[in-house]
Known about the structure:
The protein is an alpha+beta fold. It has helices spanning 33-40, 43-46, 52-67, 84-91, 143-146, 161-169, 174-179, 182-186, 197-216, and strands at residues 2-4, 23-30, 71-73, 95-96, 102-103, 111-119, 153-154, 158-159. It is globular, with a radius of gyration of 18 Å. The mean pLDDT is 92.
Amino acid sequence: MGVFHPEPDDHVPDLSSGQVALSVVMVGNIGSGDFWSAFQGSTEYLNAVPDPMDSWTKRIIEPIASEAGGEALFPSDGPPYHPFQKWASRSVSLFPSPIGLYISPMWGTWHALRAAIALPIRLELPVINAEAVNPCLSCIEQPCLHSCPVDAFDVDRGYDYLACARHVASSDGISCASKGCLARRGCPIGRPYTLNDDHAAFHMAAFVNARKLLSEI
């Protein structure tokens, strides 16, 4: 998805060899496409292992990172967790949105960060569109904020994930559970990259299960 040269306040760890990470390659997916098809054919998905997408991603990315002389980092590493959204915004034109997700002027919110590869070499940086602006700044109606049936998103209060999870798990939340977050789908940016229904349902089920586990702790 992009590359950046780490600065001290990016908190990119050194490699286990003690070498300093001079470049970080951000890895992710845009929409469903080939990514979802490949995952559905994986042994992790077919055998329903715990956290199948994380397990599959690690199996695929770690050998690639090793062959390149680097190390793979993942959003699930931690706590403490790596600041993946900050890293992504250093390498791609991404901006904060009213619902907390980072938005791309091209992809909307239909992108996901899966891994980062820290390298002890300084790669040439790809050209980033310096003229890209946050599309939310010119969005008057802000349909993302008004599409949520339980008002889980509030600019001042932040994201009420418990209200969101309860709704998705209820009979009233069938649309969110089967097709993905209504607030996210309400955004007009990046609609060609909207997740397939089965892809969206997979993530929503994982979200509800994660909240259930947290509530039991």
